[in-house]
User: What shape does this take?
Amino acid sequence: MGIFDKIKSVFKGKSQEEQKTIELYDKGLQKTRQDFVFKLNTLNKKYKKVSNEYFEELEEILIMADIGVNTVMNFIDKLKKRVKSENITDVEDLKEIIVDEMFIIYVNNQVIVNKINYSKEGPTVILFVGVNGVGKTTTIGKLAHQIKNDGKSVLMVAGDTFRAGAIEQIEQWAEKVGCEVVMRENSDPASVIFDGITKAKNENIDVVLVDTAGRLQNKVNLMNELAKINKVIGNIIPSAPHETLLVLDATTGQNGISQAKSFKEITDVTGIVLTKLDGTAKGGIVLAIKEEVNLPVKYVGLGEQINDLQVFDVEKYIYGLFKDMVGEVNEE
Ligand SMILES: Nc1nc2c(ncn2[C@@H]2O[C@H](COP(=O)(O)OP(=O)(O)O)[C@@H](O)[C@H]2O)c(=O)[nH]1
Ligand SMILES: [Mg+2]
Assistant: This one.
């Protein structure tokens, strides 16, 4: 079965709940899809037959979608090999292979671990890191809402005590979600986090979401700060933090990739939250993260609303990118 049929079949007979998340992916990836698929269709009309010029232009389109130069080079090499071995001459026949190879990049014979590593006993602590404005606090709000809907208790900890307005913002989210938040203005983040984790342990709260400040101007400072935070958390709950999620803004493209590389050097990042996919035509960054940073994308932000954070699902992602090409809807 070809990848297009496979993608289609994945979505047949799904529950209403699942249909809703598929719609979110569909909507959230609209900008990328329109840009990318439109360019691809235009390219195919121009060339019709596979040639070196065709590959050169394809390369450019992929780089513009922020898939990352190295990733694109390997990708084009693979396509060329398949063109040769499968005797493909018509560019239309290449479409499905392009989608298939993208899928392979992401899956790459690995089991994709996008599940949160929940602690079996006591509170699960999730630490959020990332530079200013990427969406850490918003993600905490959205995730808290989901966790609460799953019937678990959740506590927010306002470890960003530097930025003006940061405390009000997390407080508003806590109100919206209906959960508690530990915060204290003008104090040391590690001490607020100490209070938060202690409270969670004493009150046997299921999940603690810890916000941090995202100053990357000085790497050594940030590294020391995160080391201190990790130590404080680990002193209270030895297995914690159970996850350190790096939040990246998809609209910043390759800049996000360099942030990921930096953060990987200074702390033990366990996964990525990729926000604002809905706001960019460069949704290909998901593939670059996989190839160039090799960290699992655990969640994607597909909009600003409380329900717009979704567990990352590569099949839904590929569907969102290529649905117009797969042939179910003909928007082009
Ligand atoms: N469109 C869109 N906006 C988002 C998403 N996630 C966060 N934002 C917006 O990004 C801005 C910065 O978010 P914030 O949580 O304050 O970032 P922080 O500095 O990392 O805590 C806010 O205006 C959010 O509403 C997303 O997935 N999609
Ligand atoms: Mg914040």
DSSP finds 13 helices and eight strands in the chain. The first strand starts at residue 124 and ends at 129. Residues 76 and 95 are 13 Å apart (CA to CA).
